[in-house]
TrEMBL record:
It comes from the Bacteria. UDP-N-acetyl-alpha-D-glucosamine binds at residues 103, 132-136, 316, 338. It is an enzyme of class 2 (transferase). It comes from Natranaerovirga pectinivora. This is UDP-N-acetylglucosamine 1-carboxyvinyltransferase. Its main location: cytoplasm. The modification 2-(S-cysteinyl)pyruvic acid O-phosphothioketal is found at residue 127. The keyword Disulfide bond does not apply.
Length: 432
């Protein structure tokens, strides 16, 4: 199978962006990264074939494909449709070399356990944006008749049968909610999740599992009920559009005082972001499955952006909006309540001339500031996207290194932005 993205692990790659161009045009938004990964984990519960349409060709999907093939799945692409034959899964051990590439691999804990009644998986990797304790996941599984052992950097789980139970999450964790759903769909009895995450991706996972024969209700509320079924069947499922990619491109258009029409959107999924764009002075018009933005010549600062679980402002959009706020007239404040290390891109933005002060979990951004091209490093997925946004408005040329972080979640960020008028390239240089 060909590489999904134009990036090779043995190469030193970087983005080269000449800033100053006003972005204008139309883009179709890709399938959602945070929806497709739990869906791909869920296919192992099916002893048949799954066809996943609108599947984004990103590095995280490539990593998940490697894991699926490792456990015995047959995988092939037909355009943007990923076809997985999971009849002959033959191992419940997830290799460390793949798991450490991305934190989302922990979702396989619930699905492999549901299929094989045992699983061995190393602690997950992915973006380094602070501690990601999986205690909520393990605590829930223990209540479902699962024996959990942690040793030598691995988690080992086994059970004679998964039994439904009442689970109250101490925090509405997306990953824990998804893992419980995946583990419970083939369980004995009923599982009740209280204080469940309400993100659109939870609703998407419920839709997928139900289309495959599951019996789940309540996703999108704080209580989800999973009634265990004996088996699942073949499925064809279309992945919803990516709300974070949509918000990223809206921010990119806004910082360049441009205009953009995004197609294939579910606008209520990112309304917390569009409300802030309107507050900045942007004109926004929403349609049934698309959205239009036109930015003013001068953007206004916003008093406070506070990240919260859905439907609050998403932590995955915070870094991109920090870049945007450098071009807003006045002082803005961002408070990060989800992850404690989401400000890693601040130092890189300051290399470009940004005026940002961090105080604990808050960042104070004073603008507008004239950004200048610089050599900077993507520290994580959304921080890398933030640097792209800043570079688009900067004077001169910017070099953004460690692009693998960005390619984990953006299918064709170079092609998309170039189609809007950006001067941007992905440069691959052969390593030593």
């Amino acid at each position: 199978m060909e590489a999904l993205v134009p990036y090779k692990e043995n190469e030193s790659s970087y983005f080269r962006i000449a800033g100053g161009n006003q972005l204008k045009g139309e883009i179709k938004v890709q399938g959602a990264k945070n929806a497709v990964l739990p869906v791909l984990a869920g296919v192992v519960l099916n002893r048949g074939t799954s066809r996943i349409k609108n599947c984004p060709k990103i590095l995280d999907v490539e990593c998940m494909i490697k894991i699926l093939k490792e456990v015995g799945c047959k995988v092939q692409w037909e355009g943007d449709v990923l076809i997985i034959d999971s009849k002959n899964i033959n191992t419940s051990i997830i290799p460390e070399k793949y798991v450490r590439e991305m934190r989302s691999s922990i979702i396989l804990l619930g699905s492999i356990l549901g299929r094989m009644k045992s699983v061995k998986i190393s602690f997950p990797g992915g973006c380094s944006i602070g501690t990601r304790p999986i205690d909520l996941h393990l605590k829930a599984l223990k209540k479902m008749n699962v024996e959990v052992v942690e040793k030598s950097g691995y988690i080992e789980c086994k059970t004679s049968k998964i039994i439904g139970n009442k689970i109250n999450l101490d925090y509405p964790s997306v990953g824990a909610t998804e893992n419980i759903m995946l583990a419970a769909v083939l369980s004995e009895g009923e599982t009740y999740i209280s204080n469940a995450a309400k993100e659109p991706e939870i609703i998407e996972l419920q839709s997928f599992l139900n289309k495959m024969g599951g019996n789940i209700q309540g996703a999108g509320t704080d209580e989800i009920i999973i009634k265990g079924v004996s088996q699942l069947h073949d499925v064809e499922f279309t992945i919803m559009p990516d709300r974070i990619v949509a918000g990223t491109y809206l921010a990119a258009a806004a910082i360049t005082n441009g205009e953009i029409h995004l197609k294939n959107t579910i606008n209520q999924h990112f309304s917390s972001a569009t409300s802030k764009l309107i507050e900045m002075g942007c004109y926004i018009r929403e349609y049934s499955d698309s959205i239009y933005l036109r930015a003013p010549e001068r953007l206004k600062a916003v008093d406070l952006i506070r990240t919260q679980p859905y439907p609050g402002f998403p932590t995955d959009m915070q870094s991109q909006f920090m870049s945007l706020l450098t071009n807003c007239d006045g002082t803005s404040v961002i408070t990060e309540t989800i992850f404690e290390s989401r400000f890693k891109s601040v130092g890189e933005l300051m290399k470009m001339g940004a005026n940002i002060i961090t105080e604990g979990r808050s960042a104070i951004i004073k603008g507008p500031t004239k950004l200048n091209g610089a050599e900077v490093f993507a520290k994580d997925l959304r921080g890398g996207a933030a640097l792209i946004i800043a570079a688009l408005s900067a004077e001169g040329v910017s070099i953004i290194k460690d692009v693998q972080h960005v390619l984990r979640g953006y299918e064709d960020v170079v092609g998309d932005l170039k189609s809007l008028g950006a001067t941007m390239d992905l440069i691959n240089i052969a390593g030593d």
